[in-house]
Amino acid sequence: MNLYALLNKRAAAGKPVRVGLIGAGKFGSMFLAQALTTPGMHIAAIADLKRDRAAASLTRVGWKPEQFAASSLADAVARGTTWLTEDSMTMIAGDGIEVIIDATGSPPAGIAHARAAFASGKHVVMVNVEADALVGPMLAREAEKAGVVYSLAYGDQPALIAEMVDWARASGFEVTAAGKGTKYLPIYHGSTPESVWQHYGFSREQVASGELNAQMFNSFIDGTKSAIEMTAVANATGLSAPSDGLLFPPCGVDDLAHVLRPKSHGGVLEGKGKVEVISSLERDGRPVFRDLRWGVYVVFEGATGYVRDCFKQYGLVTDGTGRYTAMYKPYHLIGLELGISVASAALRREPTGVATGFRADAVATAKRDLAAGEVLDGEGGYTVWGKCLPAERSLSEGALPIGLAHGLKLKRAVKAGSVVGWADVATENASGLMAEAIRARRQMEETARTERGTARAAQ
Length: 459
Description:
The chain is of the alpha/beta class. The protein folds into 3 domains: 3-155 and 338-348, Rossmann fold (3-Layer(aba) Sandwich); 158-184 and 223-331, no CATH class; 360-458, Alpha-Beta Complex (Type Iii Antifreeze Protein Isoform Hplc 12). Helices cover 39% and strands 17% of the residues. The protein has 17 helices and 15 strands. The strands form 4 sheets. The protein has a 6-stranded parallel beta sheet, sandwiched between helices. It has a 4-stranded mixed beta sheet with strand order 8-7-9-10. Helix 6 runs parallel beside helix 7 (129-146). The longest helix is centred in the last third of the chain and has 27 residues, at 432-458. The chain is globular and about 65 Å long.
């Protein structure tokens, strides 16, 4: 309860937390809107592939031109203004910045930015959950070795879920399930950037604003973003992924404890301790009563009759046995809340969620019959969607992570609904950041196999 006080101390001392932001899209723009009113925080630099786009984003969220007119990072630090650049690596290496935020959405770029920041002794807040789902456990280890913080982004659902899980466990409760809500129907797995807006319900005016990327938003509808986010949650909390992917059961907030309990007790879960995403739509398309489309939840268990009586006495909604109950947060504010992660990393040296193991994976799954020679077009595209599976299964099947399913050519056909494997794609011609990302992921997989083998041998 002291981040605000710590930020004010920094402000009073004339030593604000200096931040470098990479990517001035929707998430980044929302953060920039709040940075104007956050004490003790200075956005020293913003790196974007298009400098003019970053300037337009700043203007749109209320910044004045003189606030981002710095000629260099040194000038920005000296005058308390902001430097705009297209060179993210120069910004990361520069003096004066404490925290780097990657909000690019590109896994290869996120990996490169994080590693450069670690080498420069800077903390990293990874808005780019796509990169975290791909190699988060590896990046967390590298950050620890470098003596810096690597963190999930508060305001995004994975960090909020991790916080709720931590609250429940620190209170002595066993967590049965945790996750988020979304709008889901099985047919959405085949959604494309052409059909996404009719599924999402955005108006023509919203689409015309220019802030909304069709492929990115399609990754929310087709199930990919849910898989990526639940992978991040499982790897950060120790909860496990369902054996054959997320179930997306229709469920409102009053039914969380009833639906999200083990099958043996009348629910839908294979067992306790699972990540799961609930749908705001019934399977026939009707809206769920009191849905949690924009929120997050945790279901937990009362271990004794006394505790279960307390649930009743204090008005908690439980399942029919009184054993399971839930807490939920109905909304998340994405970039508007991101400052919590920045302040926590810089002032407490604590992440707002971080991978502690490789437990789950988001794997590429064919949206339709794919032919040899086709090129995969990544998250939210026309060819594949992401499915959340246990890491053990992903490793044993040689599954291709969704974060690398972009620009790779298929060597053989893949049937609709089948997981795309490493053996199905040509990776030998990958170059630049993509090649580095492939090497990092393969290294993490090999480390995981070695550690699992050692653990089995010790049993």
